[in-house]
Design a protein that fits this description.
Elements: E1 3-10, E2 16-23, E3 28-36, E4 39-45, E5 57-65, E6 68-75, E7 85-91, E8 99-100, E9 111-117, E10 122-127, E11 137-144, E12 148-149, E13 153-154, E14 165-170, E15 175-180, E16 196-201, E17 207-210
Antiparallel strand pairs: 1-2, 2-3, 3-4, 5-6, 6-7, 7-8, 9-10, 10-11, 11-12, 11-13, 14-15, 15-16, 16-17
Length: 211
């Protein structure tokens, strides 16, 4: 079975890099890599309770809340709302038992690709269950970890489309990136099938960044 390596997230000081390795579809584990001069010099799979046997854990996003490392990730472990849910764990010498972000965020469907903006205290993620335009849409919700969240909002057009929109990340107050399989994406077939990288500027039309 071929492995795929993806879904990377850096700590604020760029000393650690979190990513997932998937063995086939739906069997992923989260890893931590140590960085020196922008190169990974060593990496290892995160222990339980982050990674568990016969459970898929992926899409790690690392942030800091009140000086404490907080990991947000997607997993199909027991105790969720259904499908892939978003979970969070904090680090105090060891990783705490992951907590589900709750039924206001998680659904019977799949919630993926989290990104948390500390300045606005907003969590961005993609879901195929919340009221959407089609496929996976990007949503935002304001709140605090682990499960104190307000109402979930669909980001709307032009961030979302009738197809899949994922991996929202803001690089400034007005700019960022996402991936999408929307019409106009580069594909090997006539119909849009695969995700391309797009950049966006707030209140402006999305312009494709990479093809």
């Amino acid at each position: 079975v071929e492995s795929s390596i993806a879904n990377g997230s850096f700590t604020s000081d760029k000393s650690l890099f979190y990513f997932s390795i998937c063995e086939g579809f739906g069997s992923c584990k989260i890893y931590e890599g140590k960085l020196t001069k922008d190169s990974i010099v060593a990496y290892s799979q995160l222990p339980a309770p982050i990674n568990l046997p016969d459970v898929s854990s992926t899409h790690p996003f690392i942030t800091e809340v009140k000086g404490k490392k907080v990991l947000v990730f997607s997993s199909n472990r027991e105790g969720g709302q259904g499908g892939m849910d978003l979970w969070t764990s904090s680090y105090k010498g060891k990783w705490s038992t992951p907590e589900n972000l709750g039924k206001g965020v998680n659904t019977l469907g799949n919630e993926l690709t989290p990104f948390f903006d500390n300045d606005s205290n907003k969590l961005y993620f993609s879901s195929d269950w919340h009221y959407n335009i089609g496929g996976f849409d990007v949503f935002s919700v304001k709140g605090k970890f682990p499960s104190s969240w307000e109402e979930v909002f669909n980001m709307g057009i032009p961030y979302n489309s009738p197809l899949n929109d994922l991996y929202y990340i803001a690089t400034s107050e007005s700019e960022g990136f996402l991936t999408s399989s929307r019409e106009g994406s580069k594909t090997e077939k006539d119909a849009p099938c695969c995700n391309d990288i797009y950049d966006f500027k707030k209140e402006q039309k999305i312009v494709e960044a990479v093809k």
